[in-house]
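Subject: Interface between my chains keeps coming out wrong

I've been trying for a while to get a sensible model of this assembly. When I model each chain on its own everything looks fine, but I need the whole thing in one frame so I can look at the contacts. Pasting all components below, labels as-is. Any help appreciated, I'm running out of ideas.
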Amino acid sequence: MVAEEHILTVSELTHQIKFSLETKFPRVLVKGEISNFKLHTSGHMYFTLKDEGAQISAVLWRSKIPYLSCTPSDGMKVVARGALTLYPPRGAYQIDVEQLQPLGLGELQMMFDRLKRKLAAEGLFDAEHKKQIPRYPERIGVITAETGAAIHDIINILSRRNPAVELIVVPVRVQGIGAADEIAQAIKDCNEYGKIDVLIVGRGGGSLEDLWAFNEEKVARAIYESKIPIISAVGHEIDFSIADFVADLRAPTPSAAAELVVRNRTDIIADIQNFCYTMENEIEAQIENLKSRLQHAVMSYSFNKPRNILRETMQRHDELERALLRSISQVYERVDRKFEGCVKQLEALHPANVLHRGYAIVRKSGKAVSSKKQLKQNDMTEIQFHDGAVDARIEGHLK
Amino acid sequence: MTKKAVKDSLEESLKRLEEIVGILEGGEIPLEESLDLFEEGILLSKNCSEKLKKAELRIQKLVKNLDGQFELHEFYDKEEEDE
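Reply #2:
Try treating it as a single job with all components included. I did that and got this:
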């Protein structure tokens, strides 16, 4: 007989199975083809994953749907990530799906091409929308994983080429669930923050699945809407992502992005020196040119003509001046002679000279007497001779 | 003439410097203006060279705090430490 304590109820057994199943498979990755896909009115998705030999029920809760990197449909081959759960009322186990990745190159390539066509038709790849990458950025933003080869390579290259720049890292997850959201959000954050001249968005190499976040529509749209110019740098040389098509510039790798984004500092400094050299040369050439034009003008006939005229005029002036001086001295001589004549005449008229000749002047009360009518008897007069005067009284009667 | 030599960014400064070199090479402006441009160009080149002198790459991390404000924190290259 079986001991009574070993008898379980269906519920007890089911719960034990549920416990061991769920602790044994908390996280599984399983690949298979989707069939019996149903989108329930509740918003949850139900489907079956199957391969040639087996099948498993799957449920995808509504809350997870926005984070899916592909839209499931019948016949699609996928890798589902999730946990096994058991639903006791029906005694059925299922996979509670967290994320679905399209499986296989064919599937991924199909999605890639579909999105590429769609975005191209919308004009997201148009050349006229591409922003100019600044030639001399000073603040460079990098959206990538905080750890890993990509950021490390970028830091090394910038340190070597031009350490005068500033690097602003915006750490994001670059693969797995939510990576695309983080990348898109980081691009928006950088634009909101604003003090960034150019952005590098990318990651190091990996499988197509690893790089998938950069092929998602939300990342493409965030790149398109960015006001800050973006350089995409996803995976290796051979990997092309949707992000590459939308970005303003595609760098084949993160290292290449770092090479592209800054010029060698020594080259910039050499350029500046060349600019100065050219400016000095140009100024010197301009001055030389002006000097030679001036020289040429000074030597020219037309410039010298006025000088010749001036010389002639000066000569003529000198001659005239000499002539004038001659005339003036002649005038002076004439004037002098005339003057001398006048002086002699005046001298001849001087009263003293008359007195010498025997004339005398009779004065009454200091005034010369020129008529007998001015005198009467007993008047006192003065007679002036050339050598002195005598007093005299009029005695006689007037005749 | 007003002096436009002080530009905030290296990009603008170097663009203006190139422009000045272009005008001087064109050689169709009066000496007076050429000399003004030359002076501006030399000032710009000094500013640019000054900006390029910094010896060590500055690395920071952009972080959005709980109030939605952006902050810059020091960034450590983890791979560097491992080496």
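Reply #3:
Confirming on my end. Chain B has a mean pLDDT of 81.
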